[in-house]
Each structure stands twice: as C-alpha cells, then as structure tokens.
Write a structure and sequence with these properties.
Helix content: 25-40%
Mean pLDDT: 93
Shape: globular
Structural class: alpha/beta
C-alpha cells in the first residue's frame, strides 16, 4: 500500500484532512482514479491557534476519552509538554503560558491530547525540518489578513513582519529540506484572489520563482466553490507544485452546483430552527442598513464569500426570517452549522464542535479561515494520479 504522507501547515480545522478522508471513503473515486493500492497519512500539522487545534482534533479524531490514561493524565506533565509550544488564544498574538497554566484541568487535557493526536509541531516559526518525518505533500494556506481587501493591506514582503509574511517561513523550511534531501514531491498553496493583485503580485512572483529554482513546476489557478458543488461565491487562488513536474496539474470540475441553496442547507428542517433563531439580527441603524442592501439579502442560489465574522459588513449575506421578534429585524445571519456546510464539512462535523461547546463566533472564525473541501478533493485526486 502506497501512502501519501501529508504535512498540513496553517492547518486550521483540517480541510485537507477532510478532503483526503472523503476521497478514500468514496468507492467511485477509488475505482475511477485507480486508488486501490494507495492511501494517505497526516504525518504532521502546524497550528498555533488553540481553538483550531482542539476543533481539528474533535472533527478528525472524535471524542478524546479513548486516549491512553485519559482519566489519569498528570496536569504538571501535560503543562510541561504544552509549554514547549508557542500558542495563541485569538489566532493573532502569542498567549502567555502563565495564563494557560490557569486553565481548568479539563481544558489542559483537551489541548494536550489535541496537540498529541494531531502530531502538531506548533507555530511555523518554531519548526525545525530535521525533526520532521518524510513528507510527500506539504500544504500551506498562509494567513490572508494582510493581503485581503477587508484587511489592513500590510502586504507580505519578505523583509516585513506581517502575518501574511509567514509565507516566507515556507521558503525557510523548503531550503532546509533541500539541504537534507527531503523536499516534498508536491506542494499546495491556497489564498485570497488579491494575492495576485497589482499590489502583491511581485512579492508572490518572488516566491514562485524561488519554487521554480528548487525544481518545482507550478500550476497557479483560480477556482470557485460554485464549480465544485458548493453554493458559495468563493473564488480563491491555488498554486499546485510538483517537483520535477513536466505538465500543469488541472483539477476537474466534477460536481458543479445544481441544487437550491435552501435544500443544500436544509433550511426548513425544524431541528435547526433554534440555531436560526439565535442568529436573528438586532434592530439597530447599522443592521437596518445591512439588511436593506440588496447585495446582501440572499435571494440567489448561492451566498457571498464566508468571512470570519457575520455581524459586520461585508458578510456572506443574510436570510429573511419569517417571524417577528421584539427588538429584532426579520432577517438572520447564516448559522455556524450552515457555514460548516458551505465549506464542505457536514452536520456531524458541526455537531462534534457543538458537543465541546465551541462558541458560535469561534466557528465563524474557523470556517471563514478554512478551505472548501470539495475543491481540495479535486486537486488531491489529480495529485494522487501522479503519486
């Protein structure tokens, strides 16, 4: 059995892991792409955002109570392990370990097990490639905040210390890997469209040339979620790189969206009415302006791009709400469950996050920063052909 060994940097909630799992659970994919003698393994992840680390673990590894010695894990030993990581509570800034020490035992255990089971190497800044296992595919969806239209446009120049500039940590890792003769066969980058805008293109081109000089053949392409079965207007740029590759890697649009948004999100299911009610919009001047914006009221069969927040402009759109509630408008935001679905995850994945009391705003942030799973499936199928 040939195993594709994958390193997810900036791993978030593991869209790459989800996509590969879906592929190898789908008999049509296995048959049509002749995957009988192939499988995959996530050999490493890199993530510093605590809620993403924990969410990744519950989505992909299920409940933690089957972890060895679950009920008898020593708090001090767990903290000694956690102390070796640089972690963040808000995904932006380093969180003081003294504050982590104040977490309840259950939270410390949750984080400890998640770091262990995710094979997490922590912040990209602290990774030393000599410690990494063999890797066939490295994925790097580096932060978009400093190149996104709704960000501060600080850019990603190599000499500047910005979050989007963490791209250059991938350069460092690849240089070290080359010295160790450990370059991955494949690389996959995903980010916002503005990466290739006039303002940032030259910085990306510098990285693109660096990859070519290492021997990679790069395929840079825009892909929209609507072409892959997801009713969300989400166009992103992907760069698929193959070491010593000869031809471009072009994913197939295998599942163009052909349903209604209402059916896709199961909007009329009574099971989800309470979740919808919890997302009704407050009756304030700013929210009234938002709901009277024709571009934001969802009447089409797709939403606008999901962002990390819904209670702001721009957001991915609002639904009309049929009932009148005091001090509320007759509109609601997209629910956290619906955000999960619109990123290619499923109801079970959302229910897992709900079972550990992951807050609504956190799920918005985690999904807004994720990658559409079905696009990744299509890319990985093409990579698996060549593996």
């Amino acid at each position: 059995m040939k195993k594709l060994k994958v390193f997810e940097t900036f791993s978030g909630i593991g869209a790459q892991h989800k996509a590969l799992t879906n592929i190898f659970n789908n008999q049509n994919f296995i048959k049509n792409y002749k995957l009988y003698n192939k499988t995959f393994e996530i050999v490493a992840t890199s993530e510093w955002y605590i809620n993403a680390i924990i969410s990744y673990d519950i989505i992909h590894n299920n409940k933690q109570n089957n972890f060895k010695n679950y009920n008898n894990l020593d708090k001090d030993k767990m903290l000694s392990f956690i102390e070796t990581f640089n972690l963040s509570k808000d995904s932006k800034d380093l969180y003081d370990f003294k504050l982590i020490k104040k977490f309840k035992y259950e939270k410390i255990r949750e984080l400890y097990i998640a770091l262990k089971r995710n094979k997490n190497y922590g912040s990209i800044l602290n990774i030393k490639t000599i410690n990494l296992p063999k890797i066939d595919l490295l994925t790097y969806s580096f932060p978009c905040q400093d190149i996104s239209k709704i960000g501060y446009q600080k850019g990603l120049k190599e000499e500047n210390n910005t979050r989007s500039g963490l791209l250059w940590e991938i350069k460092r890792l690849l240089i070290e890997m080359k010295e160790l003769n450990k370059l991955p066969k494949f690389l996959l980058m995903e980010n916002v469209k503005t990466l290739l805008s006039d303002k940032h293109y030259n910085d990306w081109l510098k990285f693109d040339i660096f990859l070519k000089n290492l021997g990679y053949k790069n395929t840079t392409i825009f892909l929209d979620a609507r072409d892959f079965g997801i009713p969300q207007s989400r166009e992103r740029v992907f760069c698929i790189s193959e070491l010593n590759g000869k031809t471009n890697i072009i994913p197939t649009y295998y599942n163009k969206f052909n349903s209604t948004l209402s059916d896709f999100l199961d909007i009329n299911n009574d099971k989800y009415k309470e979740e919808q009610k919890n997302c009704i919009i407050n009756n304030t001047k700013s929210r009234i302006r938002m709901t009277t914006n024709k571009n934001l009221t969802i009447k089409n069969d797709w939403t606008l791009t999901l962002t990390t927040k819904q209670d702001r402009h721009p957001n991915s759109g609002v639904f009309e709400y049929p009932n009148k509630i005091e001090n509320k408008l007759q509109f609601r935001y997209i629910t956290p469950r619906e955000c999960m679905l619109l990123m290619g995850f499923n109801n079970e994945d959302f229910d897992k996050l709900k079972s550990i009391n992951m807050k609504k705003d956190e799920i918005y942030k985690l999904t807004g920063n994720s990658i559409v799973v079905q696009i990744l499936e299509s890319i990985f199928l093409e990579i698996l052909k060549r593996f």
